[in-house]
Amino acid sequence: METSLWWYVVLVLLVGLERVAELVVSLRNAKWSFAQGGVESGKGHYPFMVVLHTGLLAGCLVEAIVADRPFVPELGWTMLAVVVLAQGLRWWCITVLGRQWNTRVIVVPGLSLVAGGPYRWIRHPNYVAVVLEGVALPLVHTSWVTAVVFTVLNLPLLAVRIRAEEAALDTALTR
């Protein structure tokens, strides 16, 4: 296995570990939210989201290895920078939302919307990070099929997810 592919495997594994860290934070925040009277919405799409995001990581590795995708420096380094920026944006969102951040749609009635950080400019900045990462991570090692499949499946999922979040927030804010 060539050196660039080994580094790519390490990168994808690191992103996988980052996902585990997100789940740890999410579980802690869910426990807090439920203790505060939080209500979960949109449970139906969540398993598909987990499978799709796990599939992104697996697809990156399988395509790069099985299809023998090359590392193209101009594309690879640029996409690596996008992956790093997407991770930064994601953790900025997590930090700004604090206990209100979750991988699930859990809203605590009575809490106000967060309007700081990236939420000052865009309503759902975490999903910008998801979209960027879904394209960029596979393209670090030219796994273009994975990038396309993830994006095509992720866009309708995001539409469902955002509708669920908006409805949950509207309900919580009117209570």
UniProtKB/TrEMBL annotation:
<dbReference type="Pfam" id="PF04140">
    <property type="entry name" value="ICMT"/>
</dbReference>
<dbReference type="GO" id="GO:0004671">
    <property type="term" value="F:protein C-terminal S-isoprenylcysteine carboxyl O-methyltransferase activity"/>
</dbReference>
<dbReference type="GO" id="GO:0016020">
    <property type="term" value="C:membrane"/>
</dbReference>
<feature type="transmembrane region" description="Helical">
    <location>
        <begin position="105"/>
        <end position="122"/>
    </location>
</feature>
<dbReference type="GO" id="GO:0032259">
    <property type="term" value="P:methylation"/>
</dbReference>
<keyword id="KW-1133">Transmembrane helix</keyword>
<feature type="transmembrane region" description="Helical">
    <location>
        <begin position="79"/>
        <end position="98"/>
    </location>
</feature>
<keyword id="KW-0489">Methyltransferase</keyword>
<keyword id="KW-0472">Membrane</keyword>
<protein>
    <submittedName>
        <fullName>Isoprenylcysteine carboxyl methyltransferase</fullName>
    </submittedName>
</protein>
<feature type="transmembrane region" description="Helical">
    <location>
        <begin position="46"/>
        <end position="67"/>
    </location>
</feature>
<dbReference type="InterPro" id="IPR007269">
    <property type="entry name" value="ICMT_MeTrfase"/>
</dbReference>
<feature type="transmembrane region" description="Helical">
    <location>
        <begin position="142"/>
        <end position="160"/>
    </location>
</feature>
<keyword id="KW-0808">Transferase</keyword>
<keyword id="KW-0812">Transmembrane</keyword>
<feature type="transmembrane region" description="Helical">
    <location>
        <begin position="6"/>
        <end position="25"/>
    </location>
</feature>
